[in-house]
Amino acid sequence: MMGTFLEEITVDDFETNQEKVYIFDTTLRDAEQTPGAALGIQEKLEIAKHLAKLNVDVIEAGFPISSPGDFDAVQRIANEVEGPEICALSRVVEKDITAAWKAIQDAPRARIHTFVGTSTIHMERITRTTPERTLEMAVDAVAYAKSLCADHPDATVEFSPMDAGRTELAYLYEVVEATIAAGANVVNIPETVGWTVPAEFGGLIAGIKENVPNIDDAVISVHCHNDLGLAVANSLIAIEQGARQVECTINGLGERAGNTSLEEVVMAIRTRRDYFKAYYTDINTKEIVPISRRVSRTMGIPVQPNKAIVGENAFAHSSGIHQDGIIKSRVTFEIIDPKEIGWQTSQIILSPRSGRNALKHRLSELGYELDSEQLEKVYERFLRVADKKKAVHDADLEAIMSDEIRTVPATFELDYIQVVSGTKISPTTTVGIRTEEGIVENASTGDGPVDAAFKAINQIVKIKLNLIDYQIRSVTEGEDAIGEVTLKVQDNGHIITGHGASTDIIEASAKAYIHAVNKLIQLRSEG
Ligand code: KIV
Ligand code: ZN
C-alpha cells in the first residue's frame, strides 16, 4: 500500500530516533528580490516576528552590503526578533562579510552566509575567475567570517557554492571539503537555476555524503529554485539523502519561479509522516495560513488559487461526488486537516456588537498583535465596516489590518474623497489629503474617476508615479463587500506595491495610490 491513511497512522509509524530537519527561511532575502516585493524596514520586521511565531530555525534577514536600508533592516531584526538564528548574506568579499557581521553581531544566535558561483558558467561569465581562485576566495571568506564571530557565544558560518546543480562534481566535492575545513558549519547546496530533476539532485547529495571526507563536520543544507516546478521534490529527496536543512520561502516566492515553498515541504513531511518517519520539523503549522496571507498582502503578490496548502481552493470541494464524500468523512478527499495549518473552517464572525476584546483576540489568532493605540484605530474602522456589513469575516479583518496598520510612515493620508461622474460629463474627483501643513484639497478630471483621483493626488504629493499594474478584488461576497486594491508603480528600477481597502472602490484606489507614494518616500529615505 502507498503509505498509511491519515487516521490510521499509529505510534508504530514513527521511528524513535527521528532527526530534525532545520527550516531556514529566506523570504526576506531571496523572495524580497522578486520584482515588486521590496519591503520597508518596518514591514520586514513584522514579517520576521511572524516567522519567529512560525518557529523557523533560521531567518535569512537580508544582504546588508546591498543597501543602507537592507543593513538597517537586518540589524533591527537581529536586535529585536527573538528565537530563530538571524542570518545575513554576503558574497565572498571582505567588505560584504564585515557588513553582514556588523548587522547581526548582537543577535543571540547569528549566522554569516557567504556564497560564490562554482559552476563553469558562473566562473567564466560572472566572476571571471579560475576554479583555483574561486576555491581560494571561498576558503578565505569562510575563514574570515569564522574569525569575526570567534568570540560570539552562538554564531555559525554557512557557505554556498552557487549553481551547485551545474557544478562539475569533483570540483564541488573539493570546494565543500575545503570550506568545511576552513570552518563552515553548514554547507548549502544551491540548485540556483532549478536545473536538476529529483533523482539527479538526490544523487548529488548522496555523492557529497560519500565523497567529501569531512562532511560529517557540517550540516548539509539545500536551496532549490523552482524553474521546472521541482523545488519541493528536490528538497524532499535531498532530505532522504542526508540534507538536514532546507532553505525555503513562504508561498514559494523568490527569484524567477521562486524557491522551495516552506508550507509544502513542511506539510509533506508532517502529512506523510508514515513515509518520512525518520524526520520532523519544529514548525508551528497553525501559523502557516496566517503568515501566507500576511506575506502575500505585504509583498503584493497574490497566492494562486490552486496553490498547494495555502491556495484559496486548497480545501474547496466542488464536484457533487467530492462534496458527498467530505460530508460522510473528511478524509475521503482531504489529506490535511485544514485546522492543522491555521485555516479557519468555523470562522468566528464578528458583528457591530463585538467588543474590543473579541476583535483583539481574533486578530491575535490571525497573527496580528496590536498595542492599545493601534487597537483603538482598528476598532473604529471595524465598527464602520461592521455597521455597513453586519457580519465581518476574517478576510475583512485582514483587509482592514493591511489598510489601517501601515508599516510605512503616513507622510500623506487620505482625509476625504468626492466623485462627480456620469455618461455625459468628464469624471472629476476631488481629494482632501492630510499633509504636514494640514489638509490640502485638489480636484482633477481624468479618463475615469480613479484616473482623476490619481491625477489629483499627484499634484498634491508632487510625485508622479508610473503605474504598471492595478488590481481590484472583492474580499468577501455581496454588494457591501470590502474592495481591495493592489497596485504597482515603478520608480528608478524599483517596483513598489500599494494597498487600499474600502467598501468604496474609488476610495480604496486612492488609498492604495497614497500608500505607494508613502512607501516610495520611505524607500528613497532608506537609500
Ligand atoms: O539561488 C542561490 O544560489 C542563492 C544563493 C545566494 C544561496 O540564492
Ligand atoms: Zn536563491
Task: Provide a descriptive summary of the structure in words.
- Helix content is 39%, strand content 20%.
- It has 16 helices and 16 strands.
- The protein has helices at residues 41-54, 68-80, 94-104, 120-127, 131-148, 169-181, 198-211, 231-240, 262-271, 288-299, 320-328, 356-365, 372-389, 394-404, 449-461, 505-526, and strands at residues 19-20, 22-25, 58-62, 85-91, 110-117, 155-162, 186-191, 219-224, 245-248, 279-280, 413-420, 428-435, 438-445, 466-474, 483-491, 494-502.
- The strands form four sheets. The protein has an eight-stranded parallel barrel with strand order 2-3-4-5-6-7-8-9, surrounded by eight helices. A three-stranded antiparallel sheet has the order 11-12-13.
- α6 links the parallel β6 (155-162) and β7.
- α1 runs parallel beside α2 and α3 (94-104) packs parallel to α5 (131-148).
- It is globular.
- It starts with 18 loop residues before the first strand and ends with a helix.
- The mean pLDDT is 91.
- Bound molecules: 3-methyl-2-oxobutanoic acid and zinc ion (ZN).
Main attributes?
three-stranded antiparallel sheet; 527 residues; binds 3-methyl-2-oxobutanoic acid; binds zinc ion; alpha/beta
